[in-house]
Amino acid sequence: MSSASLPLTANQLIGGTPTLTYFNVAGTKGRGELLRLFFHEAGIAFVDNRVQFADWPALKAKIVASGANPFGSLPVLELNGRNYTQSLPLLRLMADKLGKYAGSNDDERYFVDQVADIYIDWRRSWVTTLGGSAEALKTHQTEALPRCYAAFEFFLAKYDGPFVLGTDFSYADIALYQALNDDGSLESASLAAQYPRLAALAHATAARPNIAKYLEFRKQYIPQATPAPVKAASEPHTAPARSKTPRLLRGIRRLLATVRRALRV
Q1: C or N: which end of the chain has fewer Cβ atoms within 10 Å?
Q2: What is the pTM of this model?
């Protein structure tokens, strides 16, 4: 077989090797992880530029000044000297270049986009929890989470199979899996009982060969920074002990505020 007749690789189809710049949010969280999961699933080699929050202010200024993203947010994907931003449009673009992961006709493409846009509604609520507010966490867990999960469950009933399009995997499946991951719902004992289709999607997504390999690698080699536990809003409040390290606590609060601002854009 001549080289001209060999199928193109995923990187050839998208036009090169991209560089993904995004935060290292607890190792596995955030919009950039959608792209990491997608690249591994599709077999796309990429440069994973993980940004620490302490480095973000200086990097943000460079991103804005260079025109890489005038909005001053991440992720930014660089491919062949061109910068691309916004996670879901990026997933759609990569799916289009690959000719899969977005549906095989107009109706399927619309349906995938429809479900993925509910992820945006979910995420708008989730980012409010990153500042450590017990009230924001309670609101997310009692309002946005069940509303969005119920919508996911409803739409997953349209096709016969574990994924949004039934047996065909799409970028929307990654978005739903990542929402469960960011909420800490993947290990929830009640997920399968309350949302059986959503639980089946999570299981089937994690079992896909390339994703399974990445998840195992992630577990072993990517630092899993865990934020301090947040007291539930319903728990009684006690007077805090006087801190021996107020400067350190102020620094932590400033860092949490920076995280929240960065992820909300």
Answers
A1: N
A2: 0.82
